[in-house]
Target: Fungal-type protein kinase domain-containing protein
Amino acid sequence: MSLDREDSRIFTLSVVEPKLFIDSLFPLGIIFQDDRFSLEDFLDFLQVKKHELFKSGSTVATNWEQWDIFETMTHPNQEDAVKDFIQNIAQSAEKRQLTNETVPPICRSWSSANKNHPARGGDVNRKPDLVCTDPIGVSDDWRHFRALVEIKSGELTPRSVYLLLQERAAVIFRHQDRRRFVLTFALIKHEMIIALFDRGGSVISPPFNIIDRPLLFLKVVLGLSFAPEEYLGYDTTIITRPSFRIINSRFLGRVTIHCTLFLADRMDGRGTVVWLAVLEGDALTAALPKLIQSYFHWSSPSRHMSLPLVVKDAWIDEKNS
Model:
């Protein structure tokens, strides 16, 4: 795979062999319960499975080997076809309970709902072909996309694929303040390219044939569908629920976020995020001896008191710190 690293639009780039890249992203221990199960076992299961893994128009595949990706990629509804195939693979794994029993085997959802109209919550009109989202909640909003897939039937240059994936990742970074990195991949006919973007650069795989190397394809699908959110690039010290958001600070304890004041709009750089937050109740009482009491001279804070905070988070280069 050849990309011009001098191209001003090419983010700092590393190209890594697909198996090495994917194995580092999704260790088997986060997908399977124990050593009794493997990707090979699951592929064997899919090859003999007797229900529809894929359906598009009049074409039905009852198992993996009957899936004709070449026909799919020229179908008018290719995004729906690939979505059904990926979703059914993930649901088959969920039913087999192959996921790590220490992590609830909740299967994320795959959607092609935005293939023809822009997703909500973004600052640009972009139409992602396929998105991975949580099974419950908003599924067509840039603020909730876990991963993105671009599906193309024609020939694309390595540069155009890279820039397309980079553009999609940049939109996610601009609208998700918990992101450490973003995973995306492209399917171009029978070939797959997977890419990771963070604030310091990008890693991309050369294209590989998913028919010839199905285990790599399965590992990506199962990883994105089941892996804990830190493997998808999320900062787990920030907890988001429908009714509240908190930061678990090692220094101050539980800090409640009221709103995001600033989120860097550049993908490269320090990725600065600024929140308006508050310390209150037991969290405030516990934090005072460490920092606040000496400054404000509060001797006996009430549990009903609160302290507004402005919290800033940014990446730093440890070599320069």
